[in-house]
Amino acid sequence: MKPRSSLPFCVLAVAVAALASCGGESRDLRWWKGNLHTHSLWSDGDDYPEAIVGWYKDQGYDFVALSDHNTLAEGDRWIDVAASAGGMVAFEDYLEKFGTDWVEQRQDNGTLLARLKTLEEYRVLFEEVGGFLLIQSEEITDRFESKPIHVNATNIAELIEPQGGGSVREVMQNNVDAVLDQRRRTGQAMFPHINHPNFGWAIKVEDLIALEGERFFEVYNGHPAVNNYGDDDRPSTERMWDILLAQRLSGGAEMMYGIAVDDAHHYRDLDSAHANPGRGWVMVRSARLAPDDLIAAMEAGDFYGSSGVVLTDIRVADAAIAIDIQQEDGVTYNTQFIGTRSGYAPAIPLDNPDPDAPVALQYSEDIGIVLAEVAGPSPSYTFVGDELYVRAKIISSKVKTNPYKAGEVEVAWTQPIIPIR
User: Fold this and answer.
1) Rounded distance, CA 40 to CA 69, Å?
2) What is the mean pLDDT of residues 21-34?
3) How much of the chain is helix, strand and coil, in % rounded to 5?
4) What's the pLDDT score for residue 5?
5) End-to-end distance of the chain based on CA atoms, in angstroms?
6) What is the pLDDT of residues 116-167, one digit of tens each?
7) 3-class SS at 178?
8) Taking residues 27-51, what's their average pLDDT?
9) Residues 15, 19: Cα–Cα separation, whole Å
10) Three-state SS for 124?
């Protein structure tokens, strides 16, 4: 694994402290709401990209990345309207919203075809400087044997073909490396993130621990098939996050941040059986709504994931984390400060070394413990000094509309902070 930076704590915490430097120069920062993972008719979504982008913009999002499978929205692409995932219903809505001057259609031997607009064509309908941004992205969709392995590439310049490999871990690493190689070659800011690790039970936490150059993974994904909460034999994505943080940070490897996304595919059938928009997003704090600024902020950890809870501030000062929650009438908030202390009990090898076993090691319950629990809109936590990291999970009493799972309440997840030494 690549060594973790030895930057002083003020640099590690600069983002959440909203400072421009260790010297404390303030900047005009604000929060931007965005979704980094969603799909359109360019792959397996059931609606036209303009309709999808219009929905996100109308709902108050500031940026969106349509990350279709192994494709970019470019070139000349015509689809059979009736046979498409959205069918005639989606097409008729598209025609009504955007009109005959915009929608391109033709008949081919009695079959109605529609041309999918490219990103460069439709972005002019929506983008506003400082108001709304579209980011070119791709879900690099690969597999090892029967296991699906997907890596998002945010703000890429060129299509990346699935790289393959001789194991789950190698497939992930090869695709991560391909994104990082393109970044080095082009000089364009971009980053990979690991999608829904529990989808198809494909990725074990040990695979995430071993990754080099990867800083992000999906701790929350709104698709109903991705097993966010694990099962009796496999850890939830949050448990995976704590295990990989403990193992990586204690071994001198890089931090890994948690992203919340929609992974939307279905824009009409709105229920927990379908992958709908509006379930998970990131809030990124930066001075400008521009790819370079957003990516720099995320790589500094200055963002949080949310399924509904809104935070107005996250601060690290005087060896403490302080959070301000935007209150809703009639809603209560409980914040869990979660972390792992140095010297936690090591993992225990399992009796069964079967590589297809649900987990490879048994990890201590000392990993990812609740260090403190605070009620109310202004929770804080003071570091003791032996924590490897501390992250916060803000749990509201508000039941989520159109949830990933019945009974789900709105939550926010802050990024892990390494305490001052």
Assistant:
1) 9
2) 69
3) 20, 30, 50
4) 33
5) 23
6) 999 999 999 999 999 999 999 999 999 999 999 999 999 999 999 999 999 9
7) helix
8) 96
9) 6
10) helix
Segment 347-369, tens digit of pLDDT: 998 876 677 788 889 999 999 99
The CATH superfamily assigned to 9-75+118-414 is Metal-dependent hydrolases (3.20.20.140)
Question: Domain locations in the chain?
Answer: 9-75+118-414
Tokens representing 153 are 């590439």
d(CA 249, CA 4): 8
Distance of CA 412 to the CA centre of its chain: 13
Q: Which residues are 335's β-sheet partners?
A: 374, 394
Are 385 and 419 a contacting pair, CB within 8 Å? yes
Which residues, 6+ apart, have CB-to-CB distance to 308 below 8 Å? 396, 398, 400, 409, 410, 411, 412
Q: Could you give phi then psi for residue 62, rounded to 5 degrees?
A: -100, -25
- For range 253-262, the mean pLDDT: 97
- Which runs of consecutive H residues, i.e. helices, occur in 143-251? 168-186, 205-210, 237-250
Tokens 């969603």 sit on residue: 38
φ, ψ of residue 417 in degrees (nearest 5)? -120, 135
**What's the CA gap between 162 and 174, in Å, rounded?**
9
Q: In which band, very low, low, confident or very high, does the pLDDT at 81 lie, cut at 50, 70 and 90?
A: very high
Please enumerate in sequence order all residues whose Cβ is within 8 A of that of 62, keeping only pairs 6 or more positions apart, or say none.
32, 33, 34, 131, 132, 133, 289
Place of tokens 């601060």: 315
Q: At residue 175, what are phi and psi to the nearest 5 degrees? A: -75, -40
DSSP reduced 3-state for 151: strand
For residues 111 and 113, give the distance between their C-alpha atoms in angstroms, rounded to a whole number.
6
